[in-house]
């Protein structure tokens, strides 16, 4: 009886683990270069749908900063995400941009670490700081 249960649960556990890994890999805001106009665009992948597919079907976007004007495009930018999912994450690109930089106000090193006291922000022309997460990715 236990052997039969193990034969059923083992493949199911592998499939659930694979789906969770796919979901974690493709969720989040991403910054890509639009193939149509070669300008930055912020997109989101339908990570839930990607996680429920068993094959390597092409990813689909759920949003793009160029929509609704360009809705219905060929979504050729998806290949950039498929090629290097981590590199297209906004957080990854921001961390690379801020790496080694210091705050313009106090001179402290900027950190993306969880719980860091000095979080990255943008300085507006009026001197106010805006947390980077509150700004538009593109």
How would you sum up this structure in a few lines?
This protein is an alpha+beta fold.
What does this structure look like?
- The protein is built from four helices and five strands, in the order αββαβααββ.
- The protein is flat, with a radius of gyration of 20 Å.
- The protein has 138 residues and is α+β, with helices and mostly antiparallel strands.
- The model has no long low-confidence stretch (mean pLDDT 82).
- β1 and β2 form a beta hairpin.
- Strands 1-2-3 form a three-stranded antiparallel β-sheet. The protein has a two-stranded antiparallel sheet with strand order 4-5.
- It is 33% helix and 15% strand.
- Kindly state the mean pLDDT as a whole number? 82
Give the number of DSSP strands: 5
Query: Which class do the helix and strand fractions yield?
Result: alpha+beta
Low-confidence stretches: none
Give the H and E element order. HEEHEHHEE
What's the arrangement of strands in the largest beta sheet?
A: 1-2-3
What shape does the CA trace take? flat
Features:
flat, 33% helix, 4 helices, 138 residues, 15% strand, three-stranded antiparallel sheet, alpha+beta, single chain, two-stranded antiparallel ribbon
Topology diagram in text:
Elements: H1 2-26, E1 29-33, E2 40-45, H2 47-52, E3 61-64, H3 78-83, H4 90-98, E4 121-123, E5 129-131
Antiparallel strand pairs: 1-2, 2-3, 4-5
């Amino acid at each position: 009886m236990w052997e039969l249960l193990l034969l059923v649960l083992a493949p199911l556990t592998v499939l659930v683990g694979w789906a969770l890994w796919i979901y974690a890999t493709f969720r989040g805001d991403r910054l890509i270069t639009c193939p149509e106009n070669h300008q930055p665009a912020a997109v989101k992948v339908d990570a839930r749908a990607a996680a429920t597919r068993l094959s390597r079907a092409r990813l689909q976007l759920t949003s793009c900063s160029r929509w609704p004007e360009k809705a219905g495009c060929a979504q050729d930018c998806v290949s950039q995400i498929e090629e290097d999912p981590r590199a297209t994450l906004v957080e990854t690109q921001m961390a690379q941009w801020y790496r080694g930089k210091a705050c313009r106000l106090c001179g402290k090193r900027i950190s993306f670490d969880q719980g860091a006291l000095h979080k990255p922000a943008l300085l507006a022309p009026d001197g106010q700081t805006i947390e980077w997460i509150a700004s538009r990715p593109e």
